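--- STAGE predict ---
source: upstream dedup step, 1 unique chain passed
mode: sequence only
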Amino acid sequence: MKNTNLKKGLVALTTAALVASFAVVVPSAARAAEPTCSVAPLALYNVANVTTCTGVDEKGSKYEIRMPANFNGTLFLYSHGIRKGVNLPAIPVVAPTGYIVDTSPDVAPSAEVATSLLKQGFALAGAGVQVQAWNLAEQTYANLLLNSIARDTFPKIDKVVGWGNSLGALSTQAVAEQYPGTFDAVGNMCLAESGLAEITMALDLLWGFKSFFDPTIKATGYSAGTNGYMEMLGDIQKVLGVLVALQTAIAINPTAPTWPTTSGVPAAYQGIPVRSAVLLLGLISGLSTQSKTYDSASGPAGDGETSFGLVLSPALAVLENSVDAVGLAIVANYDMEMRAGGIVYDNSKTDYSARLGDDGDTYAAALSGKTYTGVLLSILKASPRVTADPAAVARFKAVYDYGLQGKVTVPTVTLTATADHITPPGATQYFISKYEADVSKGRAGVEGASQAGLVTSIWNKPSDSYSTFKDGKPVTPTLAPNGTTHCNFTTSQTLLVAKLLAAAAKSGKSPSASTVKAAIKKDANLFVDPNYQAPLFKYRQ
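--- STAGE serialize ---
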């Protein structure tokens, strides 16, 4: 199906099936006005003669369309990642200057990427969405509406590339799977999995912090209204206190750091180095053991170089990654519970010994040996568990969540970091596995069925060694090394994906293996390997 024939079809979709699915979360609004357009140089993007159209769609989402004078026929429709869904006061680390909910649209992953694409003649578009946080349903709807608005405003659009980061990648893939023909090519960068998958990973970590370090952390079951909001803020404060206590203890005595004074773990067990407890939580939840500062291998030159890399670095990496991951877990879970009307996380039957699996042997030294590992797992086994509200889970699944189906009918390129601590590579691997399973059904040629050879997977890995030390102490870099943290791709890597997508949208074919290898040969952090299998999310293993 050609995109040029989709305009009327999309209008029908957004007034029928999609409305039925999302009516509960997307409140009705007056019919949107026509976009306001003007031609002017774009100072932000350093591009001349660009027509800029802005507006608010019929459901209240702001949008922008940027059309260059040298338009080449292809529009890139971008979906940004998750943003906080509530205003926050000034909170160290989480919101240093405070936070106001941001509903502004982004038309590309960065200004540098936008500048390059506009100068090449590509049009850009993006929706801000009227609500933030886990807004998958609303973002999916906004994508469909914006695609239709852009086509109506600029009939010369011939091809549309849908792409996004994180939650934006998931919403883009959701559109592609549910409404084949909307996009001519799809780019999924640092792909998120379903909301329940993501929150299971995040809450396993947060629940572990509660169990080991501060039993007064609420973590789940937030109250409605102002009380729940204050409970959420209180949890952030408590977790930050725990993180500071852990960092301080490890800095004073890395070999045998003390436990936080807020811990409810019996004193008899607190002889276990607390860094081992931190690492255990990272391993059972699936948090990366590589971070901005720690490569999980290097140590300061000298007698302790090897032991630092084996024993300390993995735990320190998990601790550094936890600063982002636990804070996001609190805010994201609060949002999901408010949307669903109850608890959606459940670990009532989780076997954390099984979750640890072979990692117990791989990281035996850093975990302080099997005996101590067994004690830590026994503490988790005895800790109070969380049982989800079935009605809340059902509501969340029906309205707010989306499980990747792996249905691929147009060329699709994924770019995934192997050490991403927010959207681990297991999300992309799950998508690939679902795609391969759909292809194996042997329905080639059937409309809407996955076709073989349409997915190109590019992996982004940190350098084998990037940690640096001064006077025997680790040095935290100003900029995170490529391949660490969340969606940390360079401008050239993102533009490489865009180039592949543009060519694929035009040809209808995925880039060949030789084309991709030639494109990435000068980038030591990128690789393609059909035999590479990223570990699935821990709860799927």
